Amino acid sequence: VLDISKLYKEVGCFTVDPGFSATASCASGITFIDGEQGILLYRGYPIEQLAARSNFLEVTYLLWYGKLPNESQLQQFTHEVVHHTMINESLRLFYQGFHHDAHPMAVLVGVVGSLSAFYHDYLDIHDQKSREMAALRLVAKMPTIAAAAYKYTMGQPQIYPKNSLSYAGNFLHMMFAMPTQPYEVDPVAERALDLLLVLHADHEQNASTSTVRLAGSSGANPFACVAAGIAALWGPAHGGANEAVIRMLQEIGDAKNIPKYIARAKDKKDPFRLMGFGHRVYKNFDPRATIIRETCYQVLEKLADSRDPLFELALRLEEIALKDEYFIERKLYPNVDFYSGIIYRALNIPMSMFTAMFAIARTAGWMAHWMEMMADPELRIGRPRQLYTGPVMRDYVPLEERK
Ligand code: ACO
C-alpha cells in the first residue's frame, strides 16, 4: 500500500504555506512594499510623492514602462488611451441581458470577459506591441464599461465618453451626465477620484493580481485574465472591503454602539470582523490610508453640505480600536479602504460601484504584471502543489458489497 506521508518525506523540500504568507510566487520589478515601515513604492517612487504630484495615466505609464514619461510621451500615451475609450456598439447589448439590479461587479466580470470575443483573435500574446495594445484597450474601456453598468442599473441611457476630459473627469461625466443635461465636472471631485485611482493602481501580489498572473501563465488572453482578476477582487476580504466598510458603519449607526461591535470583532465564535482593518502585509500602518484620510477631510469640506456622520463615526471607531489591546497586539490598523468609501459617497458614487472603482484603478497594475510576466522568456505555467490529506490508497468496493 502506498504510504503517502512517506512519499512527502522522499520529495525532499516540500513547503506548505496556506495564504502564501512567506512564499513569493514570482519575481517582479513593479511595486515594493515594506509592511513594517509602511513603505509603498511604484517603480521606486514613494506613493506619497506620486499621490501629491502625479496622476493616474502617468502612474499607469510608470507601472508599465518602469520610468516616468517625458511630456511628449505622456501626451502620446494619454492620446492612445483616449482613442480607445469607446466600446463596441454590440457590447452595449450585453447589458440588457443582465437583471436590472445586478451588482456592477457581476456585470463587469461578464462584460470584460466578453472583450475576449471582440479582440483576442487580433492578439498575439508573444508580441510586445500587441500586448501593449490589449493593455491600452483594457485601461481605456474599463471606466466606460463600469459607468455603463451603473447607468443600466439606474435605467438611464448610457453616456458616450467625452475625450476632451481627463481620465477621472470622463468617468464622472459618463456616470452623471444625461443626454438632455450637460454635466460640469467638479475639479475637486476629479482630483479626489484621480488620487484614489493612483493609490489603488497596484499593490504587488495581492489576490486579484496573483489571479491575473496565474490565469495568464497558461497563455490565456488578457481580457479573460482581467475578468478572473475582477472576480477575485470582488470578495469582501479584498476589493469588496470598501463597500463592506460603509455597510458596517451604517449598521453600527452611532458611536455609542462601537464597543459592542469591537467586542464582536474580538469574539472568535462570531464571524464579524472590523471591515477596513488589518492587512496581510502592512503591520504598522497602510501609507495609502494616511494619504486618503487627509483627502477625506478636504473632499468633505468642499463637496459635502455638512460633515458626513459616517466619517465622524469612522474616526471614532478608529480612535477606539487603535487603543484596544486586541488590535494593538495583532497590529491591526485601518487600511486604504477604511476611508475610500467615504470619499466615493461624497462624490455621489453609489456603494454598489465602490469595488468597480477599485477594479478600474487596478486594471493598470494587473496589466503591468501581465506584461511583465509575458515578457519573461522563462515563464512557466503557475502550478501550485498541495498537501494531500485524503484517504490512503484503497481498493474499489463493488456496489453490492458496500455497507
Ligand atoms: N477584525 C478583527 N480581527 C481581525 C481582523 C479584523 N478586521 N483582521 C484580522 N483579525 C485578526 C484575526 O482574527 C487573527 O486573530 P488571531 O491571531 O487571534 O486568530 C489575526 O487578526 C490575524 O488575522 P489573519 O486573518 O490571519 O490575517 P490575514 O493577513 O490572513 O488577513 C485581511 C488580512 C484579510 C485583510 C484581514 O485583516 C481582514 O479580513 N480584514 C478585514 C477586511 C478588509 O479590510 N480587507 C481589505 C484588505 S486591503 C485591500 O484589499 C485593499
Question: Features of this protein?
Answer:
56% helix, binds acetyl coenzyme *A, 403 residues
Would you kindly provide a written description of the structure presented here, covering whatever features stand out?
With 403 residues, the chain is mainly alpha-helical. It is 56% helix and 2% strand. It contains 18 helices and three strands. The protein has helices spanning 4-11, 47-53, 56-65, 71-83, 89-96, 104-119, 128-154, 167-176, 187-200, 207-217, 222-233, 241-252, 258-266, 287-303, 309-322, 325-329, 337-346, 354-374; strands spanning 31-34, 39-42, 45-46. The chain has a three-stranded antiparallel beta sheet. β2 and β3 (45-46) form a beta hairpin. α7 packs antiparallel against α18 (354-374) and α9 packs antiparallel against α14. The longest helix is centred in the middle third of the chain and has 27 residues, at 128-154. It starts with a helix and ends in a 29-residue tail after the last helix. The structure holds acetyl coenzyme *A. Acetyl coenzyme *A is lined by residues 19, 237-239, 241, 265, 273-280, 330, 332, 335-337. Residues 19, 237-239, 241, 265, 273-280, 330, 332, 335-337 line the site of acetyl coenzyme *A.
Helix/strand layout:
Blueprint (H helix, E strand, L loop, with lengths): L3 H8 L19 E4 L4 E4 L2 E2 H7 L2 H10 L5 H13 L5 H8 L7 H16 L8 H27 L12 H10 L10 H14 L6 H11 L4 H12 L7 H12 L5 H9 L20 H17 L5 H14 L2 H5 L7 H10 L7 H21 L29
The structure holds acetyl coenzyme *A.
The site of acetyl coenzyme *A has 19 residues, from loops.
